[in-house]
From TrEMBL:
Gene3D superfamilies: Aldehyde Dehydrogenase, Chain A, domain 1, Aldehyde Dehydrogenase, Chain A, domain 2. Keywords: Metal-binding, NAD, Oxidation, Oxidoreductase, Potassium. PANTHER family: ALDEHYDE DEHYDROGENASE-RELATED. Residues 16-472 form the Aldehyde dehydrogenase domain. SUPFAM superfamilies: ALDH-like (SSF53720). This is Betaine-aldehyde dehydrogenase. The gene is betB.
Length: 483
C-alpha cells in the first residue's frame, strides 16, 4: 500500500481532489520524510460534502436497521481482511509501531462497525400505556453529524464516530486531524465497497478552519470531537450557538494508584501500558502514577528494568515496540515538558532526552519524587513521560488524584477488592480500571467527566448520543376542552 491517497477527500461515494486548497504535507514520523500530500478542503469542497451528507441521510434513515447493520458488518469484514495493509498505512500516518497497529487500529475500527452493525436492527422505542390512551416513542436519528478527529488513532476515531452515527441512521462528514489525514479515507472507501449509499459517510481534509466551517453550518445537527480541552471548549461553544448535540472526547491527566499490597509486576505493566503505548500519545493515559511509599523503590527498580526492554526503531519492523512522536512539533512540546520536570527537581529515573536517530523519537521517560504542584504533574504532556508521586494514605491519595480539572480515566492496583471498589467509587473519572489499565473494548462506554468531556463513545451509551426520542400521545376517546 502506498501512503499517497487517490485524492484528498471522499465525497458522495468517490474520491475528490481540489488542488486549490492549501497543500498539507504528510510526514512520516520515523524518518521526517514527506510521504504524501493532501489539500485542505476549499469552501466548495466543504459545501459538496455537507450537501451530499444532507441529501443521503434521508434515504439512509429510511432503510431498515437490519439493512444498515448488514452494510456496517460487511465493512467490518473487509477491514479485517485488509488489516495488514491498513496497519501499515496507520503506521505511516502516525509513526506508531506495526506491532501495535496490527492489533489496535483497523481491528478496533472493525469491532465498532461489527458491534454497532449488530445493534442497528434493535433500536426501537417504547409503548407506554395510559389507560385507554397510550404514548409510543420512536428512536430517531439526529440527522447530519460531523466527526472531528485527533491524530493518535486515525482509523479508530473515524470508526468510533462513524459506526454508531450510521447505525442510528445519521450521515457523517468526518474531518481527520491534519497531522494524520490518510486512514479515514480508507474507512470511507471500505464502507462504500460494503454497500453504503453514496454521501452517507464523507471525509474532508483541513485544519481548524475547516472543522469550524463544519461545526457552524446550520445543516449540521451533531458534532463529535476527539481533541484537546482548548479545542473542545471552542467547538462546544460554536455548537451551542446552533443548539447542536455534542460529544467531546478530550484530554486527561489521569491517576493510576498503586497500593502497597499490589502485585508489583502487574502494577508496573499497567503503568507501562498507561504511559508508553503509542509512545504516550493516548488521552486516557495514567500519567500521574501514585505509588505507596512502602513499595516505591521496588516499583521504580522493576519499572526501570522493564522500560530498558523497549525496542525503538523502524516502526514498520514488527520487532519494534516503541515508536516516535507523531510530529516534530509534538516532540518539541514533550521535550519542553521534560526540561521543566528536570528544572523543577523531579528525579529522572530513565529517558529524559531525544533519541539520536532520524525521526521524532523520545526515550521512554520516568520521573520520580514528583509533587502535585509540578507542571509535569498538572498538564497533559501527550508523550512518553511518566510522573511517579508518593502517597501514604487512601484518603490522601483520593483527594490528590481528584485535584485536577481533568477526569478522563483512573486506575487502581491492589489485592484488596473492597478497597479497589471504594477508591474507584470516589475517583472523579469516566473510564476506570481495577488491576488493569487502558483497555478499551467496544462493549464498554468510553469518555470523561469534568474538563475531559461530555458524552460517551462505544457501547449502548453511544446510541443515546447519536439518536433522539420522539414521543407520540395517542388519544382513543373524545378531546375535552375548556370551551
Ligand atoms: P487538537 O485539539 O489540536 O485537534 C483536534 C481536532 O480538532 C483536529 O482535527 C483539528 O484540526 C480540529 N480543530 C482545531 N481547532 C478547531 C476548531 N476551532 N473548530 C473545529 N475543529 C478544530 O488535538 P490533537 O492535538 O489533534 O490531539 C491531541 C489531543 O486530543 C490531546 O489533548 C488528547 O488528550 C486528545 N484526545 C482525546 C481522546 C479521547 O477520546 N478523550 C482521544 C485521543 C486524543
Amino acid at each position: 500500500m502506498t501512503p499517497q491517497p487517490k485524492a484528498s477527500h471522499f465525497i458522495n461515494g468517490e474520491y475528490v481532489e481540489d488542488t486549490k486548497g492549501t497543500p498539507i504535507p504528510v510526514i512520516y514520523a520515523a524518518t521526517g520524510e514527506q510521504i504524501a500530500v493532501v489539500h485542505t478542503a476549499t469552501p466548495e469542497i466543504v459545501e459538496r460534502a455537507l450537501a451530499s451528507a444532507k441529501e443521503a441521510q434521508r434515504t439512509w434513515a429510511s432503510m431498515t436497521g437490519t439493512e444498515r447493520g448488514r452494510i456496517l458488518r460487511r465493512a467490518a469484514d473487509i477491514m479485517r481482511e485488509r488489516n495488514h495493509d491498513l496497519s501499515v498505512l496507520e503506521t505511516y500516518d502516525t509513526g506508531k509501531p506495526l506491532q501495535e497497529t496490527l492489533v489496535a487500529d483497523a481491528t478496533s475500527g472493525a469491532d465498532a462497525l461489527e458491534y454497532f452493525g449488530g445493534l442497528a436492527a434493535s433500536l426501537t422505542g417504547e409503548h407506554i400505556p395510559l389507560g385507554e390512551d397510550w404514548v409510543y416513542t420512536v428512536r430517531e436519528p439526529l440527522g447530519l453529524c460531523v466527526g472531528i478527529g485527533a491524530w493518535n488513532y486515525p482509523t479508530q476515531i473515524a470508526c468510533w464516530k462513524g459506526a454508531p452515527a450510521l447505525a442510528c441512521g445519521n450521515s457523517m462528514v468526518f474531518k481527520p486531524s491534519e497531522t494524520t489525514p490518510l486512514c479515514a479515507l480508507q474507512v470511507a472507501e471500505i464502507l462504500h465497497e460494503a454497500g453504503l449509499p453514496a454521501g452517507v459517510y464523507n471525509v474532508v481534509q483541513g485544519m481548524g478552519e475547516v472543522g469550524s466551517a463544519l461545526v457552524t453550518d446550520p445543516r449540521v445537527n451533531k458534532v463529535s470531537l476527539t481533541g484537546s480541552v482548548p479545542t473542545g471548549k471552542k467547538v462546544y461553544a460554536a455548537a451551542a450557538e446552533g443548539m447542536k448535540h455534542v460529544t467531546m472526547e478530550l484530554g486527561g491527566k489521569s491517576p493510576l494508584i498503586v497500593f502497597e499490597d499490589a502485585d508489583i509486576d502487574n502494577a508496573v505493566g499497567g503503568a507501562i501500558n498507561g504511559n508508553f503505548y503509542s509512545s504516550g500519545q493516548v488521552c486516557s493515559n495514567g500519567t500521574r502514577v501514585f505509588v505507596h511509599k512502602d513499595i516505591k523503590e521496588r516499583f521504580l527498580a522493576r519499572l526501570a528494568e522493564r522500560v530498558a526492554g523497549a525496542v525503538l526503531g523502524d516502526p514498520q519492523d514488527e520487532a519494534v515496540n516503541f515508536g516516535p512522536m507523531v510530529s516534530e512539533r509534538q516532540m518539541e512540546i514533550v521535550l519542553g515538558y521534560i526540561e521543566k520536570g528536570k528544572a523543577e527537581g523531579a528525579r529522572l529515573i530513565c529517558g529524559g532526552e531525544r533519541v539520536d536517530r532520524p525521526g521524532y523519537f523520545i526515550a521512554p521517560t520516568v520521573f520520580a519524587d514528583v509533587t502535585d504542584d509540578m507542571v509535569i504533574a498538572r498538564e497533559e504532556i501527550f508523550g512518553p513521560v511518566m510522573s511517579v508521586l508518593d502517597f501514604e494514605t487512601e484518603e490522601e491519595v483520593i483527594e490528590r488524584a481528584n485535584a485536577t480539572e481533568f477526569g478522563l480515566s483512573a486506575g487502581v492496583f491492589t489485592r484488596d477488592f473492597t478497597r479497589a471498589h471504594r477508591v474507584i467509587g470516589a475517583l472523579e473519572a469516566g473510564s476506570c480500571f481495577i488491576n488493569s489499565y487502558n483497555d478499551a473494548p467496544v462493549e464498554a462506554p468510553f469518555g470523561g467527566v469534568k474538563a475531559s468531556g461530555v458524552g460517551r463513545e462505544n457501547s449502548k451509551e453511544a446510541i443515546k448520543h447519536f439518536s433522539q426520542v420522539k414521543s407520540v400521545y395517542v388519544r382513543m376517546g373524545d378531546v375535552e376542552a375548556a370551551f
